[in-house]
Amino acid sequence: MQKLHTLMILEILGKPAEHVFESLNQLVDKLDSERGVKITKREIRDPLPVENSKELFTTFAELEVEFETLDIYLAVLFAYMPAHVEIISPENMTVTNTYLNDLGNKVIQRMHNYDAITKKLYLKIRLSYKKSGN
Prior knowledge:
By secondary structure, the chain is of the alpha+beta class. The chain contains three helices and five strands; from the N terminus they run E-H-E-E-E-H-E-H. Helix 2 runs parallel beside helix 3 (97-131). It starts with a strand and ends with a helix.
């Protein structure tokens, strides 16, 4: 399979402005160090104050990213949750049903893991709420 050439936008929100900028830089560096991922172009914007907030700042990174495989691309989407992503090339892909089955099972496994985490947290919150007498 061909590499996927993509455009990606990562956003971050927080405080103070310096921390927001540094955190986004670290996130972009972490993405670039992932196996099968190569950032070919990056532009990180300076943080701006959030409207109607005295403390919060937001910034974003515009990235061109190459992915070795479709499954690495999807794993990055789940792990980094970009604000926007666009595949530039290839325009068309040919994949086998075996590859898609494997990919689908990886997505389902990740969704089951997220579901289990959510259920555990929900139960902990309910138990904590009951212990507090509410």
